[in-house]
TrEMBL record:
<feature type="signal peptide">
    <location>
        <begin position="1"/>
        <end position="24"/>
    </location>
</feature>
<dbReference type="InterPro" id="IPR011047">
    <property type="entry name" value="Quinoprotein_ADH-like_sf"/>
</dbReference>
<protein>
    <recommendedName>
        <fullName>ABC transporter</fullName>
    </recommendedName>
</protein>
<keyword id="KW-0732">Signal</keyword>
């Protein structure tokens, strides 16, 4: 069965299941039933206005730096949804559902991709809904964006974070909940375990990491500091902040937050440290470039670092984690697979023209549980890679205009 046939079958099964629930609910309803009784018939995980599906509904939010066009590409049926225009597109971030597109006017445009996952720990729910432009967050020079079920934190390069109400965002409206949380430099605030984690900004930019409640009020600080924080990631094991001497892992147990420094195996120069973490959502293996032709792999579970190197300058990297190859795109346009333990090259495929790979904006590698996606910023092409089959190009997808900036949702 092909991936498309499997998807049609899964949709049909999900649709029949929904019909069965509806028939059961209607068949059991009597005039004597109370509204509370009817409400209990709503399926677990229900989200108003969305369709629950049997599998992930992966989509790509893509922004054209030349025309400002923003599009959402459905990776299931390959349909392209035109969303709107953002003048002077400069960057993009994602939180699994929303794409945050930074424009030249210091405004972040929030795009609802209509695709997301709800993780209940022992099981997950997948949803799809209409694609839409939710609105803008003004006065923000985007560095990163993170969400939990209650809040969304959009951080700015001027050292502050704007916290949005997630329920309002899900409903299609941008509503600030906290006007400003100060953060250090270009780091970001990360919602975690009903709190906000923020490398301290303002006068406290001394490596302190603050624990704040969802209304932005300071609760405590970690005992372990993070000097010169750059880069952050949310994993199943906790939140990771990149520091001058390694990575700070923040965990929570019964309301207590603890920090643990995972130090580099040896001192590294400023230009050789990792400053941006990339990983598959849900994975605890992170990678990032370091210097002109190398990078680092951080195994959060094992608390270990591994250095990898290439013969060509690196422009993008990512990994599916858990023993999977490190995916590296070099400036010559070649996508390479590196053994995560030894750093040896295990596969290579010419993918982009050198000018496309080494240009500005640079391509990115987005990874999910079965495929990787690499955009060509000089065209509208996105290459779907089967990273478990010697980097085989499974599909070449295309959108109108340029695929300058890209982020995957639905995972």
């Amino acid at each position: 069965m092909t991936r498309q046939q499997h998807t049609r079958a899964a949709r049909l099964a999900a649709g029949l299941a929904s019909v069965s629930v509806l028939i059961a609910a209607c068949g059991s309803t009597t005039p004597a039933e109370s509204p509370a009784t009817v409400e209990e018939d709503v399926p677990h995980g229900y989200v108003e206005g969305a369709e629950e599906t049997a599998e992930a509904q992966s989509r790509l939010v893509i922004a054209d730096a030349e025309t400002g066009g923003v599009r959402v590409l459905d990776l299931i049926d390959e349909e392209v949804h035109e969303v709107g225009q953002v003048e002077g597109v400069e960057d993009i971030a994602g939180d699994g559902r929303f794409g945050y597109v930074a424009g030249a006017d210091d405004a972040v445009h929030v795009i609802d991709s209509g695709s997301w996952m709800v993780d209940h720990g022992d099981h997950v729910h997948y949803y799809r809904a209409e694609v839409r432009d939710v609105g803008t967050v003004d006065g923000v020079e985007l560095t990163d964006a993170f969400s939990d079920p209650v809040v969304t934190a959009v951080s700015s390069a001027d050292g502050r974070t704007l916290v949005l109400d997630r329920a309002e965002l899900d409903g299609g409206t941008v509503v600030p909940r906290v006007e400003e949380v100060p953060v250090a430099g270009t780091s970001a605030t990360v919602p975690y375990r009903e709190h906000l984690l923020a490398p301290a900004g303002g006068g406290a930019g001394d490596g302190t990491v603050e624990i704040r409640d969802r209304d932005g009020e300071a609760v405590s600080t970690l005992d372990v500091t993070c000097e010169d924080p750059r880069g952050q990631a949310l994993t199943r094991r906790g939140v990771v902040f990149g520091c001058a001497d390694g990575a700070l892992l923040v965990t929570e147990d019964d309301g207590r937050f603890d920090g643990e420094l995972i130090a580099y195996p040896e001192p590294v120069e400023d230009g050789e440290r990792i400053s941006t973490f990339r990983h598959r959502p849900g994975s605890t293996t992170l990678v990032g470039t370091a210097g002109d032709a190398g990078g680092w792999l951080l195994d959060v579970t094992e608390r270990t670092w591994r250095h990898w190197a290439t013969t060509e300058p690196v422009v993008a990297a990512n990994t599916a984690g858990e023993g999977s190859a490190v995916l590296v795109l070099t400036a010559d346009g070649v996508l390479r697979g590196l053994d995560p333990d030894t750093g040896e090259e295990t596969a290579a495929v010419p993918l982009l023209e050198p000018g496309a790979a080494a240009g500005t904006p640079a391509p990115v590698i987005e990874v999910d549980t079965t495929r990787a996606y690499v955009n060509d910023p000089t065209s509208g092409e996105i290459h779907e890679i089967d990273y478990n089959d010697d980097l085989r190009v499974a599909r070449t997808l295309e959108v109108p205009g340029l695929a300058s900036h890209m982020v995957e949702t639905g995972r």
